[in-house]
Amino acid sequence: MTLLELLDYASVFVFALTGALVASRAQLDIVGFAFVAALTATGGGTVRDVILDRNPVFWVAEPGFIAVAVAASAVVFFSAHLLESRLRVLTWLDALALAVAVPAGTGVAMTLGHGAAVVLLMGVATGCLGGLMRDVVCNEVPLVLKQGELYVTAAFAGAAAALVAAQVMPQGAALLVCAAVTLVLRAGSLLFGWQLPVYRSRPPRR
Asked: Where are the transmembrane segments (predicted)?
């Protein structure tokens, strides 16, 4: 198994766990769990592969990805009630999933020989879109849009770090740098409140 395949499998598994946790908060049945988990797990990678004209899409080429997502949803369906705080676990699992999915998307774009702009956008899309789909479908406030938190910024910085690191080290090592930068920034935002300035509207002048 190549590094990119391993990253895709890890991303699918962890994002599927987050999708199933959101399904548990919405009190869906086991089929709903599987649907939301699979949507979350494959959403970002599907958009990536369609945009890059990577045929077939990764989970069509290897249906085992869907099996992994469904298995993850079943685990959460029978164990979510044991968690003290599903929201807290969801937030941290989502951070871990982001740190795996961004290098997966970045690595695919780099392997296909695309330029820096495409590599950056595919890293961000792979990391962020599955979770965005999950939250919109389940009527949750999207984690990607939480006020001031580093989410898309963490994904972008991770992909950029991979591009820079790839100039001086093998691609595999550069993708590990990508994962580390993404996770550190996202975790720092959650633990220490790291954030970018947010827009503040001012009252109109009379």
From this structure: 6-23, 30-51, 57-78, 90-110, 116-137, 149-168, 174-196
Separation CA 97–CA 22 (nearest Å): 14
Helix (H, G, I), strand (E, B) or coil at 113: coil
CB neighbour class for 27 (10 Å; exposed up to 12, middle 13-18, buried from 19): exposed
Nearest residue to 66 via CA among 38, 29, 44, 46: 38
Tell me the pLDDT tens digit for each residue of 122-157: 999 999 999 999 999 999 989 898 877 899 999 999
Question: Can you tell me the distance from the alpha carbon of 83 to that of 163, in angstroms, rounded to the nearest whole number?
Answer: 38
Q: Check if the beta carbon of residue 46 is closer than 8 Å to that of residue 59.
A: yes
**SS in 3 state form for 157-194?**
HHHHHHHHHCCCCCHHHHHHHHHHHHHHHHHHHHHHCC
Q: What are phi and psi of 92, to 5 degrees?
A: -80, -35
pTM of the shown model:
0.94
pLDDT at 173 > cutoff 70: yes
E strands along the chain, which residues? none
Is-contact 138 23, C-beta < 8 A? Answer: yes
Angle between helices 116-137 and 86-111 (to 10 degrees): 150
SS3 50: helix
Cα 39 to chain centroid distance, Å, stands at: 12
Q: What angle do CA 25, 28, 34 make, to 5 degrees?
A: 105
